[in-house]
TrEMBL record:
Keywords: FAD, Flavoprotein, Lipid biosynthesis, Lipid metabolism, Oxidoreductase, Phospholipid biosynthesis, Phospholipid metabolism. This is Digeranylgeranylglycerophospholipid reductase. GO terms for biological process: phospholipid biosynthetic process. It comes from the Archaea. Residues 8-171 form the FAD-binding domain.
Amino acid sequence: MTPETSYDLIIVGAGPAGSTAATYAAQAGASVLLIDKKKDIGIPLQCGGFLPRLETLQELVPNAELPFTLESIPSECIHASSSVQRFIAPNGNSKEFEVDADAIDRRRFDKYLAKVAGKSGAQLMAGTNVLEVNGTTVKVDGVFGEHTIHGKVLIGADGPNSIVGKAKGLVRDPDPMGTGTAFEYEISGVDVDRDAVEMYFGKDYVPGGYAWVISQGGDTANIGVGIREVLFRNGMSARDYLERFMYEHPIASKKLTGGSIISVVSGLVPVGGAPKVTATKDTLVAGDAAGHIIATNGGGISTAMVGGKIAGQTAVDSLEGKCKLTDYDERWRKEMGLEIKTAVYVRKLMDNLMRSDSMMSAAIKMIDPEHMKALQCGQLPDAVRKGLIKMNFGIK
């Protein structure tokens, strides 16, 4: 395709945030160009694809208006469904709570969202890299050639290392503990619990983080580790930790050893919260670029889509003179800012807990399932807070 020379909105990044922003803006009548560096939207993967069902998502961000694309996800985008989330402590004890969720096929889901954006009227340029950002003008190059394109509003939905965010100063303060690495395998030939999502803790396998096992149906699963590089032991990499978990963990290895690795997935996960500012007079950031993620579990699909929806709507409202573009900061924080901020606080608390296997095991034993579910959603129930104080954990 040959793009127009100008658009109302230029959106960089066709993941859940960018495609959702494009859909809502295009449906409101704006001219939208959606750019993504991937030649094949959704590939390579950068996420395990765990997505709770609509009712749980609404509990996660109760003040948010969820995008319509989360209301009914096409069956072909779902690998498998689960009804239980299980925590396995370093000492091997476990505790679980009920949660209805799906293991999403991100390849198909991201394509689905991009198709919805296209049907809504947005133009899509895949295989296109942004070389330069100058105001709201972008210089791009890729499979469709080199172009200079002007937009009235620019939206950066291009991940934790956002080119748009860096160009406009919409970035988080440096924090080595604020960015995690997710390293994952898709494996076949394994016998895992198909009804449960399992999360494993223990500093020998995932110091300061957790490992997971998510069934994708049949004998296939997604396994991975979420870990901060600053906590790696000398000479260890994220792959080394995943290999140790897969082959040496006393519980997980019995389910996973002998499996065939059919895909390797990796990516950065921004768990440090949102930048202080996510909007200028002509530019917004959304999704991972804006820290729209629940830091306690690394889940960001739904919150990215909420941020994208608000970004697309705010951009159109500003073009119509109904608001300032900088109102975006207040709008998204009103819908999910408290939950994202609280999740960062709880994540920091958990960081301290996970430095000690005995303390983490004691905490999992102490916390009842419903409170555990709340913690996973980035909430800190008062009863849990009081319990941790009794353990002399040192919080106020």
